[in-house]
Amino acid sequence: MIIPAAGAARRPALVLLLCCSSVLLVLLDVTVVTVALPSIGTDLAADVSDLQWTVDAYTLVVAALLLAAGATADRIGRRRVFRTGLVVFALGSLLCSLAWDVGSLLAFRMVQAVGGSMLVPVALSIVTTTFPEPRERARALGLWGATFGVSLALGPPVGGLLTHAVDWRAVFWVNVPIALLVAVVAGGVAGARNERRAGSDHGRHPIVPESRAPRPRRIDVPGQLLLAVGVAGLVAALIEGPDLGWSSPVTLALLGVAVLALASLVPVELHRREPVLDPRFFRSVPFSSAIVAAVGAFAAFGAFLLVGSLLLQAARGLTPAQAGLCLLPTAATVCLGAPLSGRLLAQGRGTRSPLLLAGTSTAAGGLLLWWCSGPDVPLWPLLVAFALVGLGFGMVNAPITTTAVSGMPAAQAGAAAGLAATGRQVGTALGVAVAGSLTGTTGRDVAAVGAGFADAAGPVWLTLVGLGLLIGAAALLSTTARARRSAGSVRSLLDGPDAHPAGA
Description:
By secondary structure, this protein is mainly α. It has helices at about 10-30, 35-45, 50-75, 80-95, 100-130, 135-165, 170-175, 175-185, 195, 220-245, 250-270, 285-315, 320-325, 330-345, 350-370, 380-405, 410-440, 455, 460-475, 480-495; strands spanning about 5, 190, 205, 210. The strands form two sheets. The protein has a two-stranded antiparallel ribbon. It has a two-stranded antiparallel sheet with strand order 2-3. The radius of gyration is 22 Å and the shape is globular.
């Protein structure tokens, strides 16, 4: 149920296009900068750890604010927050293109991420309220899900072509007119043609109607802060630790803050009436498996894009455009894997098959990369490996969301899906952070990363193998009889008389 402020959507297809376009921008910016990173490093005199922060400053802020933005939109109006997010995202993108050093670029990436965090959950809420009929909603959500895979996959090729043809700053320029156009159209109205000719406003409707939740969730400030501080501290330690030393006071302080914040999260959340992270969810084996698969899959993809871009440009000497074209097989198989995964789910085969295929393909791609990434190896095995990693990533998104909400009461399904989305962003940040540590390039200038980087990347590719196996294990664990019983128990707990965490 929603509370509409301006009637139903007059043009639902246009609303879907606007929402998908906004998510395309947000997720494209997770990956579009990866091919531009070597050029950014050269232009701004940035080392590899700075480049890692260029990705993680964005993903961490999106992850930290994702759930709070959705709760705020439910309270004050989804269209209002949606349009505000687009304007902030456009402003952040413009500022990123004007960055004069690494510090300013990171600060502006965080501004950009604040806008992006308003778009993903709010756009999804707008889509679900625009299509109340189950079949139409399922079709709309299918297109929505496909946008996730396509946007993440298209980032590297688009970033490579823009960087080569213009400059790395063009990666950010392109966001500005698109975001502002979507904001303007979303605020417009539509009416019958004869009514417009008559100069009457009767029957005119907003293209994106305003809506609110009948009972908006409270914003869990303590939970949000603990989650953000814990993850940010862990990522910072992983990025800076190799350069500062794992026993340095700064690294130990970061790890200590991360451990303290994450350890405090469960007892604090147990006493919140509407926690941002309900610990009881994790009693459900399918939900826990979905979070593990989300973090593992996106960590693998984040590490792959960072190290793959450096491998192609710094180790093999390719231009940004050539590197982007080499990543086209990844984009193609992501676009192939997403609908294939959705079809397997639609045929009633469950989530085990697509998750197993995702894990197997990721592990096979990592193993092939470990074997063929040397500078003397022909390029074509590398492209095959890129395609395998892309197929695994494309297959994993739909079953993650389905597994996360499996067995959850309808009132909790949105919170479960939101936590899975947060897990995706956290996984990307962790993957990028770990990749720099494993290659030993943290703190080094991009120019110093030469042909020897191919050997240094070996541990990252073996990590992809391990993460692929982890996804496969999550697939098996989430579909056992014990997993189904645990999901049923959690559903009874959340629907029962003890509907709130203990102590609330």
